[in-house]
């Protein structure tokens, strides 16, 4: 049977990254997040900075870019295809958690994938954002604008490269409110993954 893979998309500052790490720790499997940037850099010869920057850019049309191919393909599209191939490779090698980067869509043809989405109340997200070491001191209304900006960027990236809509419940197996508690969310995801694996084996 193919390895169990858990993909996670999340609202910015929802606690999703922390939950993903907890899930990986509970199951004793690797978490792929920024590690994918490092792997993509090694494969492509590009710098990690260039790859990270390209994730925030998109060209006019991926379909058009695929027709053009070669050196004319925009860097953002090259990186998306490169990271998609790496995601498929690591998913084939063993059980893992994949955070962001359209992982749920990239692995859409695999049966043994639990697709999750984490969200949180706005007040909790503002508190999480404020608690970050590099956080700026500004009023909550500006934080709200910042969070919305990050979410729009994630939605734009996801909606551009997939046929789905970011954050839409029907695109995921499990949507969780991080207000339930990070440990609780991690445990629910682990149980859901085990249940899915058992049902596939049956």
Explained architecture:
With 202 residues, the protein is of the alpha/beta class. It has one domain: Rossmann fold (3-Layer(aba) Sandwich). Helices cover 54% and strands 11% of the residues. It is built from nine helices and five strands, in the order βαβααααβαβααβα. Strands 2-3-1-4-5 form a five-stranded parallel β-sheet, with helices on both faces. Helix 1 packs across helix 9. The longest helix has 22 residues.
Q: How many separate helices?
A: 9
**Top CATH class:** Alpha Beta
Rounded to the nearest angstrom, the distance between the terminal CA atoms is 11 Å
* Number of separate domains: 1
According to CATH, what is the topology? Rossmann fold
- What's the CATH H-level homologous superfamily? P-loop containing nucleotide triphosphate hydrolases
Q: Please state the second-level CATH architecture.
A: 3-Layer(aba) Sandwich
Overall pLDDT confidence: 89
Structural class: alpha/beta
Helical content stands at 40-55%
* Topology, number of strands: 5
Strand order within the widest beta sheet: 2-3-1-4-5
Oligomer: single chain
What's the Cα radius of gyration?
17 Å
């Amino acid at each position: 049977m193919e390895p169990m893979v858990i993909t996670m998309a999340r609202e910015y500052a929802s606690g999703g990254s922390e939950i993903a790490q907890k899930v990986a720790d509970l199951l004793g499997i690797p978490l792929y997040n920024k590690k994918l940037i490092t792997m993509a850099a090694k494969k492509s010869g590009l710098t990690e900075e260039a790859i990270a920057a390209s994730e925030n850019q998109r060209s006019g049309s991926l379909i058009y870019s695929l027709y053009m191919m070669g050196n004319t393909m925009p860097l953002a599209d090259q990186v998306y295809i490169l990271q998609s191939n790496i995601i498929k490779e690591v998913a084939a090698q063993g059980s893992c958690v994949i955070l962001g980067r359209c992982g749920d869509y990239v692995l859409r043809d695999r049966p043994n994938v639990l697709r999750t989405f984490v969200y949180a109340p706005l007040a909790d997200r503002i508190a999480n954002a404020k608690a970050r070491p590099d956080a700026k001191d500004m009023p909550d209304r500006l934080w709200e604008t910042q969070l919305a900006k990050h979410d729009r960027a994630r939605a734009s990236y996801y909606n551009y490269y997939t046929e789905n809509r970011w954050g839409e419940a029907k695109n995921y197996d499990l949507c969780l409110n991080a207000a339930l508690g990070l440990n609780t969310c991690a445990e629910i995801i682990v149980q859901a993954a085990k249940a899915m694996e058992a049902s596939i084996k049956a």
